[in-house]
Design goal:
- The chain has 214 residues and is α/β, with parallel strands linked by helices.
- It has eight helices and five strands, in the order αββαβααββαααα.
- β1 and β2 form a beta hairpin.
- The radius of gyration is 18 Å and the shape is elongated.
């Protein structure tokens, strides 16, 4: 028999301490060659359950879209944080992800007073709210799973819009990740403004930056 992960255990432990407004934070987009890193901060009602909700990477696009709509409707609070490819190139992807997480938490906290933050893997040293960093948190915490879905769908939709301008890169299918088609398109067409200039193989093709026209 498979071990079933209780993805509400962290939340239950906080409820026992009379902590009710628990935020989950996750990111999407650290690995792509193009576009922003997107983070989400989500606060769910006490005792919230949503059957099938888990790490967004383990869900189909149809499932993510379904859960996205449900979470948007039923969450007590949602905040989004976005840091562009320019910020990523300036401060590096790890620091840009942290900045995006702070932004998402701040945006969520405008509408609800967050009492504790559950974060997928990352540590936010400057956060002035009590927090817990959880390895594989998007599997172990339903609140982080919800944030994972919100961040993933938000970023995927941004990449689908970019795909309409530059269909040759296949962004609607690869979300900017370094697939074979994407890399071959960089070598053939050059790079666009939204590419991360400090990422390989983008940095090897900087001389081709003006090759692609809208």
């Amino acid at each position: 028999m498979k071990n079933i992960i209780d993805n509400t255990e962290y939340e239950k432990n906080l409820y026992k301490q009379n902590i009710k407004f628990i935020a989950g934070v996750d990111e999407v987009g650290r690995g792509p060659l193009v576009g922003p890193v997107v983070t989400a901060c989500v606060v769910l009602p006490v005792g919230y359950k949503l059957e099938g909700l888990t790490d967004s990477k383990k869900l189909t696009k149809k499932q993510r879209e379904k859960f996205f709509d449900i979470i948007k409707k039923e969450a007590l609070g949602i905040g989004i944080g976005i840091k562009s490819e320019k910020v990523i190139d300036e401060v590096n992807i790890y620091e840009a992800t942290k900045l995006a997480m702070y932004e998402a938490i701040e945006n969520c906290n405008k509408n609800i007073k967050i009492e504790h933050v559950l974060i997928d893997a990352m540590k936010l040293e400057k956060l002035n709210i009590p927090s817990t960093s959880i390895i594989k948190g998007d599997l172990k915490s339903i609140t982080i799973s919800a944030a994972s879905v919100i961040a993933k769908v938000t970023r995927d939709r941004m990449m689908e819009e970019l795909d309409k301008k530059y269909p040759m890169y296949g962004f609607k299918d690869n979300a900017g990740y370094p697939t074979k088609k994407h890399i071959e398109a960089i070598e053939k067409y050059g790079i666009i403004e939204e590419h991360r200039k400090t990422f390989k193989p983008v940095c090897f093709n900087l001389d081709k930056i003006n090759k692609v026209k809208n």
